[in-house]
Write a structure and sequence with these properties.
The protein is α/β, with parallel strands linked by helices. Helix content is 39%, strand content 15%. The protein has helices at residues 3-18, 48-57, 85-101, 103-113, 130-141, 179-184, 204-214, 229-239, 259-265, 279-284, 292-320, 334-342, 375-399; strands spanning 30-36, 63-64, 121-127, 149-155, 168-175, 191-193, 219-224, 248-255, 268-272, 325-329, 346-350, 425-428. A six-stranded parallel beta sheet has the order 2-1-3-4-5-6, sandwiched between helices. The chain is elongated, with a radius of gyration of 30 Å.
């Protein structure tokens, strides 16, 4: 590198060091920005075409950042400076080298990217070596998940490191005529367009691709379970792989006693009845050995709690917005009621599928009947199924009044299926080989 180039870089780094974080342009809760290598160290201005590109693809609830790095009000970003293609190429090569090997510049990257850690959501259009700058900054953050939602669109990327973090949604667009990205970058292209290295943001097909991709919907899921390990943990194990998938936003709603455990696993958690942290455990855990009277008292206590749970979920979804999907443990019976009222599809998870009534085979709850062949056993099973159904209806009649506004709830749908289980999907968390039957109703 020549002395003149070294001198310009030192002046540039001095300017970066002198910038105040208070003047950052990354202050909105949701930001859309354009990041590329610098073709002119004295200005961070975007071209008119790049600004137009950002404005055309920007979602209504996002703010466009009208500057390249360092995204600071005090660094010149309004005056557009024309440079030759050769000068721009040399400058970008120099910038690429400093990104990888200049510790002072790496410190500046950390300083001026760090305001992103306070935003709610960011979409970054990384052109060429802009992705190299971003991966350098992410490298300094370590392996922990970043505290905001980040989506990256790489246009003809040239980066030494691969961006393969599971907590970042990435779209890679490369051009058939882009020899730089094809030869100097290892990212696989999600989309290949008829572009060279310099005109991605000026192409209508690229604008359309990016516009649609940014608006991909994030699916909000509420997982609801009683705070008992045998119910909660199997369901969390089921949805845990979605934690690192940026397409999903998962919240767990359960009792206070399990909030800390749920958050340690990595989920956001909302605790029900924080003023009564053991209300659900107190119903289940009795000082005396269980007997029919205690079982009936537990049943009554549970039924009195149902309207409170429904009212609490109603408040949560009205104030914070309803989810797109609810996944509920099978004993969280109020969830289906309130989900149907809000028009939210819901899925039942059940670690004990034997609890679901059968249609033609040997029923459960009757002391461990075993399946047998023969007319008499078929008659026995039919009587048993009717006895189970009548018993449930009688028990429900005893507690109906305690349900308040939900007294009109019916245990069975018109097609005969049990209304406490989802009509959409039931996930049986067991081994099919251990089940005597598969005719669940």
């Amino acid at each position: 590198m020549g002395k003149s180039a070294m001198s310009k870089m030192k002046q540039y780094l001095a300017k970066l060091d002198a910038l105040s974080p208070d003047q950052t342009m990354l202050k909105s809760s949701k930001v859309l920005l354009f990041l590329s290598g610098s073709s002119h160290l004295e200005s961070a201005s975007l071209t008119a075409g790049q600004l137009k590109f950002l404005e055309q693809i920007c979602p209504s609830d996002f703010s466009v950042v009208p500057s390249n790095f360092p995204f600071n009000q005090r660094f010149e970003h309004e005056r557009q400076t024309q440079v030759s293609l050769l000068t721009a190429s040399v400058s970008n090569i120099r910038y690429y080298w400093h990104t990888l090997y200049n510790s002072r510049f790496q410190k500046a990257l950390q300083q001026h990217f760090s305001p992103l850690l306070d935003v709610e959501e960011a979409v970054i259009i990384c052109k060429s070596s802009g992705l190299n700058m971003l991966t350098q900054w992410l490298e300094g953050l370590g392996e922990e998940n970043i505290p905001f939602r980040l989506r990256v669109i790489a246009l003809g990327p040239v980066s030494r490191r691969l961006l393969n973090r599971k907590d970042i949604d990435l779209l890679v667009i490369k051009g058939r005529k882009d020899i730089y990205s094809r030869c100097l970058d290892g990212h696989l292209a999600d989309v290949i367009v008829d572009s060279n290295h310099f005109d991605y943001e000026y192409r209508e097909d690229v604008k359309g691709l990016v516009y649609d991709w940014i608006r991909k919907k994030v699916i909000k899921i509420d997982v609801i379970s009683v705070p008992f390990s045998g119910h909660l943990l199997p369901t969390l194990t089921l949805v845990k792989p979605l934690l690192t998938d940026p397409r999903f936003q998962i919240r767990v709603i359960t009792g206070c006693q399990k909030k800390e455990l749920v958050e340690e696993i990595g989920f956001d958690c909302l605790a029900l009845f924080p003023e009564r942290p053991t209300v659900m455990e107190d119903i289940a855990n009795t000082p005396q050995q269980s007997n029919p009277l205690i079982t009936y008292q537990q049943f009554r206590a549970n039924s009195r709690l149902i309207p409170e749970v429904i009212d609490e979920l109603n408040r949560i979804w009205q104030e914070g917005g309803k989810p797109d999907l609810v996944i509920a443990d099978f004993v969280a019976s109020p969830v289906g009621l309130i989900s149907d009222r809000f028009g939210i599809p819901w899925i039942t998870t059940i670690p004990s599928p034997v609890a679901i009534e059968c249609q033609t085979t040997t029923p459960t709850y009757l002391g461990g009947w075993k399946p047998h062949q023969g007319v008499l056993y078929k008659f026995r099973d039919a009587l048993g199924r009717q006895a189970i159904r009548c018993g449930k209806k009688m028990a429900f009649a005893l507690v109906r009044k305690s349900l308040g506004d939900y007294q009109n709830f019916k245990l069975y749908r018109e097609d005969g299926t049990e209304a406490i289980y989802s009509p959409y999907s039931i996930l049986a968390l067991g081994m099919k080989e251990l089940e005597f039957r598969d005719d669940f109703s």
